[in-house]
């Protein structure tokens, strides 16, 4: 079980992180994943989970049977963006200044430099 403050250093291969709400985060390449926050969600039932991905390629897979009792508000931080996953799977890769998100997804992204929020549904979005 992961806990707040855990740092996962990924050296390659395939690693799957199982989140408390049943969703999964698969890592396919070397990188670093930090569990910045895991605790009760502010003003809502369930958990609030904040993950920081630095380097590497990842695939987020939502739970197929989400339980309202353990539902989670998940945020993924990268060097260039904040990703708030929706209910569909998507993949993303991070480097020092870019994020590429692809797959079947509809999510909200907030660019850290401009603080603009937008909704997107596309095969690939690159934020610089």
Q: How is this structure best described in words?
A:
- This protein has strands at residues 7-10, 15-18, 24-27, 31-40, 47-54, 56-61, 72-77, 81-84, 90-94, 99-102, 107-111, 117-120, 124-127.
- The chain has 128 residues and is mainly β.
- It has one domain (7-127): Jelly Rolls, CATH 2.60.120.1440.
- It is globular and about 35 Å long.
Please trace the helix and strand order, writing H or E for each element.
EEEEEEEEEEEEE
Proportion of residues in helical segments = under 10%
Counting helices, strands and paired strands, the structural category is: mainly beta
CATH topology description: Jelly Rolls
What fraction of residues sit in β-strands? over 45%
Annotation keywords:
single chain; 128 residues; mainly beta; Jelly Rolls; seven-stranded mixed β-sheet; six-stranded antiparallel β-sheet; globular
Write the layout of secondary structure elements.
Layout: E1 7-10, E2 15-18, E3 24-27, E4 31-40, E5 47-54, E6 56-61, E7 72-77, E8 81-84, E9 90-94, E10 99-102, E11 107-111, E12 117-120, E13 124-127
Task: Give the gist of this structure.
Helices cover 0% and strands 53% of the residues. By secondary structure, it is mainly beta.
């Amino acid at each position: 079980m992961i806990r707040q403050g855990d740092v996962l250093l990924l050296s390659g291969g395939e690693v799957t992180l199982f989140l408390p709400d049943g969703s999964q985060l698969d890592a396919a390449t070397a990188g670093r994943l930090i569990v910045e926050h895991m605790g009760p969600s502010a003003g809502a039932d369930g958990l609030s989970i904040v993950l920081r991905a630095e380097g590497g390629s990842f695939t987020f897979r939502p739970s197929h049977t989400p339980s309202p009792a353990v539902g989670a508000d998940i945020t993924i931080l990268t060097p260039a963006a904040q990703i708030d996953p929706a209910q569909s799977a998507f993949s993303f890769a991070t480097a020092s200044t870019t994020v590429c998100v692809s797959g079947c997804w509809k999510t909200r992204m907030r660019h850290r430099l401009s603080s603009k929020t937008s909704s997107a549904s596309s095969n690939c979005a690159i934020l610089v």
